[in-house]
Amino acid sequence: MSLSNKLSISDVDLKGKRVLIRVDFNVPLDENKNITNPQRIVGAVPTIKYAIDNGAKAVILILKPVVGELEKQLGKSVQFASDSVGPEVEELVNKASDGAVILLENLRFHAEEEGSSKDKEGNKVKADKAKVEEFRKGLTALGDVYVNDAFGTAHRAHSSMVGALENPKRPFLAILGGAKVSDKIQLIDNLLEKVNTLIICGGMAFTFKKSLDNMAIGTSLFDKAGAETVPKLMEKAKKNNVKVVLPVDYITADKFDKDAETGKASDSEGIPDGWMGLDCGEESIKLFKQTIDESETILWNGPTGVFEFDKFAKGTKATLDAAVAAAQSGKIVIIGGGDTATVAAKYGVEDKLSHSVTRDKDDNIG
């Protein structure tokens, strides 16, 4: 799907309209349900305010724990609907005065939203087609205009961000981190049709290393389902002349814990039994920096290590520093994915990048 044939919110007359705004407010919460990083909410506020300022009724697809933070960011009260579809919700929306902000219950509570759900045993259960259609009609009844603001800076960054992805200045580099290959198969597949270079890092790098080189990875993450797709992805990369860059050394841990004992490992000896790779090492950092320096457009989705633990944050911080330096030199740098946006927020550099986009693991470019 091309992004350039979609209208920006600023292209639509919103006066008196009921506006459904799709946002990604999957924010991290502590044990007391307090938000620990409001970046995704902050990123959506300009779109919501734009709708309000232009006389619309703003309807946000959302979940309840963010009500307080959203009220704080907007500076006005927010109504919360206990469901996302149905007669009661329709009545609430239709009776709202212009400029009202109404939050709907989390859409993912409905199997019809994603087409499936899981039963008590954790087995995937498909939603009934008729119910899916009924659910969609229920959502459609709530709004006159639909705005997808899952890209946090959509209406402000529309033309420049879309242009950067559809007609990128080359060399075009994508950096993909995260845990599972299977979570990002579609994204990797799409990017292999667009980029010149692809850095695979984070936990999923170990699936590539074991599958391609039979490297010993100890107790590092290994995605068995994802491993089956690695040869096909590498074949496509070769066919499209895409250079795939993988880490070559690692910071290891004896357990997944912030206070773990640490060690070092490289490709040649592998990671010993009982140890796991939680970050990339110095040589990988140099390799990633060199690759970033050689690129003109950089899309980064997913950290290079377990940055939440200070002992294993160096690779991610070094990659971020290289990305910031690239952006400051005039290159296009787009950071996407909740974890990566959290990294940018943690080190206070969101405003030093071209775009910070807060989507989750279902990122899809193309």
UniProtKB/TrEMBL annotation:
GO biological process annotation, one example: glycolytic process
Give the protein's cofactors. Answer: Mg(2+)
Q: Which Pfam families match?
A: PGK
Q: Recorded E.C. number(s)?
A: 2.7.2.3
Write down the chemical reaction(s) this protein catalyses.
(2R)-3-phosphoglycerate + ATP = (2R)-3-phospho-glyceroyl phosphate + ADP
Cite the binding residues for ATP.
184, 277, 308, 337-340
Q: State which residue ranges cross the membrane.
A: none
A molecular function (GO) term? phosphoglycerate kinase activity
This protein's pathway = Carbohydrate degradation; glycolysis; pyruvate from D-glyceraldehyde 3-phosphate: step 2/5
Fill in the subunit field for this protein. Answer: Monomer.
Protein family = Belongs to the phosphoglycerate kinase family.
Q: What is this protein called?
A: Phosphoglycerate kinase
